[in-house]
Write a structure and sequence with these properties.
8-stranded antiparallel beta barrel, about 160 residues, single chain, mainly beta
């Protein structure tokens, strides 16, 4: 009897765990475009991949007329049960920015970006859209807090 119950309990626990993970992560990975900043003028590319049922890694590169910024984030994401396809997330990441211009000289910025937002996976298309708040906390040149970091993005779901 023990030989039947233990494997049955193991399979049941794994099935429930996998279903919970699937419910939290609506897709494995996605790539898309992102509009960053208070005026939406900063554009870039973004890649997001699930790490576990509730965590994901996100990488982005944003471009301006005389600068580029690179970032990597860790996100905790949870589905909102009452709204199919909608989830909330929160996390933080590091960012490095490179600015070149004759009026300010060459600069490198280092900082962190905490974030919180909502993501909606369209039920019939392989697309997801997100809106989040990402303030920037600088550590070297440009030290301090910049609170105008709103981001909107559209991602194509790869798998």
């Amino acid at each position: 009897m023990k030989k039947v119950i233990l494997p049955l309990l193991t399979v049941t626990a794994l099935t429930i765990g996998l279903n919970e993970a699937k419910a939290q992560t609506p897709y494995k990975s996605a790539i898309g475009i992102v509009f960053d900043g208070s005026d939406g003028a900063n554009a870039g590319i973004q890649y997001k991949t699930a790490l576990t049922g509730t965590s994901a890694a996100q990488f982005q590169a944003a471009f301006g007329s005389n600068w580029i910024s690179l970032g990597a984030d860790w996100l905790y994401q949870r589905a909102i049960p009452e709204a199919q396809g909608l989830s909330w997330y929160a996390g933080a990441g590091a960012q490095v920015g490179f600015h070149t211009g004759s009026y300010v000289g060459d600069k490198v910025w280092l900082g962190v970006r905490p974030q919180a937002g909502l993501e909606f996976k369209l039920p019939t298309l392989p697309l997801a859209v997100h809106l989040d708040y990402k303030p920037y906390i600088g550590f070297n040149k440009g030290t301090g807090f910049n609170g105008d970091g709103f981001t909107f993005g559209v991602k194509y779901i790869i798998k």
